[in-house]
Amino acid sequence: MWPGTWRKVFAGLSPTPRAALRLSKRLYGPAGRRDTIFALSSGHGKCGVAVIRTSGPASGAALRSLTGQWELPPPRAVTLRRIRDPSSAETLDRGLVVWFPGPHSFTGEDCSELHVHGGPAVVSGVLQALGRLPGLRPADSGEFTKRAFQNGKLGLTEVEGLGDLIHAETEAQRRQALRQMAGELGRLYERWSEELTKALAHMEAFIDFSEDDNLEEGVLVQADAAVQTLEEEVKGHLQDGRRGERLRGGVHVVIAGPTNAGKSSLLNLLSQRPVAIVSPVAGTTRDVVESAVNIGGYPVLLSDTAGLRVTEDAVEQEGVSRARERLLQADVVLAVLPAGDFVPEPCCIAEALRAVLPHGDLAWRVPCVLVLNKADLLEEGHREILLGACQKGVLPPTCLLSCKSGEGIDRLLSLLRAQLEQMCGNPLAGSPSLTQARHRLHLTSCLASLGRYHSYKSLDLVLAAEELRLARRHLGKITGRINAEEILDIIFRDFCVGK
Ligand SMILES: Nc1nc2c(ncn2[C@@H]2O[C@H](COP(=O)(O)OP(=O)(O)OP(=O)(O)O)[C@@H](O)[C@H]2O)c(=O)[nH]1
Ligand SMILES: [K+]
Ligand SMILES: [Mg+2]
């Protein structure tokens, strides 16, 4: 049997304001307690099933109001219920409901989920009904995740991993995000933080008690050794060629070469759609044309650029200077040359490649793949001459390609994949990579503090200990153990509503 007040609410009778306030306090807790938030957690637009989530102390009451049943479903079990508008008792849908009493929920608070039919009218009907319940309000972007963090359910690096998982577009990105979300990166930083704490404790003990004889001699040496080991580890972690960040943000591959080599044709071939204009007119491409593609599970941002040549045309000159600029930002260069230019005399390939690469340097720090395009136009026997020439000497990995017939595309893809693998690493192997510029910033500051610790340690132990404390603070900012609202806002801003 329901309590009398409940029966009144369910009968659609509105209680007096005073009684309503009392009722609301009984059901939803006293004012000043945390709001209960709700949002559509699945994607927007028409879909088969939409998931609406609530989190906060009034979640249970909201579920009771919407299902019209006093009895809450068993925890974490999916139950079919009629979902109704509490004020009019009108049926909005029949759907699945799940009750997650805190602390065993995503946010750590009482949570509920309503799985309803994904039509816009059903979804807006349920959202409006929720909005009319006392103590409930629509969630802000990332608020569910923020509450999970504040209730200790997730560390900051895990939160970032979750955000990356939501945005992951390729398999390698997904693997890296899952690993970070599972807490591996966070645990690494926490271990470092603990080691610093230990070293700091030893130093402080020495500072405070070294007058007494009962302190071991080796305490300071031990702390110093621990700091040095840590320093090496942090340095190694930072010198990872930005693999985690590259995998997260995409590898920048720049297509460059002389006019009419087939650069735009190659962009279109790799993108599998006509992204850029292709024409027999030399100097067709002027702006940098970008296209995001997935190559072997790695995210790649391809840039097609203006053909490199000396020209009187002011617009084309601007195109060429943009191409040069983009080349300087490349992670990998795809240099495209027309194969026919180098037969039967293949001697000047290196010369032509130098004209493409920055500073005319074949040993430039950025990896390069050489594409000899329009292989379909080669005469019999010329392929062998070219391939033979490319295997010798200073040239980067080379492939003969025809954008027209598709010949050679498999070899090009495998050359590219090899470069990407080397650059991004295997996200499942080895120690986890740092994935954000934010991590790099704090780790660099941490190293700087450790460096100052070394300068101070023989002069002033108190100052040296202070630097260890600062180093630990920098690590803490990565995992969120130091409560800094500004870092939180930066991270949660990237989340969408309902996450
Ligand atoms: N036969 C043959 N023609 C090709 C091939 N690739 C491109 N072409 C042709 O070569 C011409 C130039 O191709 P684009 O892709 O516009 O060359 P581009 O390097 O982007 O040229 P610009 O933007 O002007 O520097 C077009 O007519 C293409 O159809 C190929 O593999 N074989
Ligand atoms: K062209
Ligand atoms: Mg072009």
From TrEMBL:
Presence of the UniProt keyword Membrane in the record: no
Reaction(s) the record says it catalyses: GTP + H2O = GDP + phosphate + H(+)
UniProt domain TrmE-type G: residue ranges: 250-421
CDD domains, alphabetized: trmE, TrmE_N
First-listed, main subcellular location of the protein, grouped into a coarse class: mitochondrion
Entry's Gene Ontology molecular function annotations: GTP binding; GTPase activity
Keyword Nucleotidyltransferase included in the entry's annotation: no
InterPro entries: G_TrmE, GTP-bd, GTP-bd_TrmE_N, GTPase_MnmE, MnmE_dom2, MnmE_helical, P-loop_NTPase, Small_GTP-bd
Keywords, in A-Z order: GTP-binding, Hydrolase, Mitochondrion, Nucleotide-binding, Transit peptide, tRNA processing
Any one annotated GO CC term: mitochondrion
Family to which this protein belongs: Belongs to the TRAFAC class TrmE-Era-EngA-EngB-Septin-like GTPase superfamily. TrmE GTPase family.
Function, as annotated: GTPase component of the GTPBP3-MTO1 complex that catalyzes the 5-taurinomethyluridine (taum(5)U) modification at the 34th wobble position (U34) of mitochondrial tRNAs (mt-tRNAs), which plays a role in mt-tRNA decoding and mitochondrial translation. Taum(5)U formation on mammalian mt-tRNA requires the presence of both GTPBP3-mediated GTPase activity and MTO1 catalytic activity.
UniProt-recorded name of the protein: 5-taurinomethyluridine-[tRNA] synthase subunit GTPB3, mitochondrial
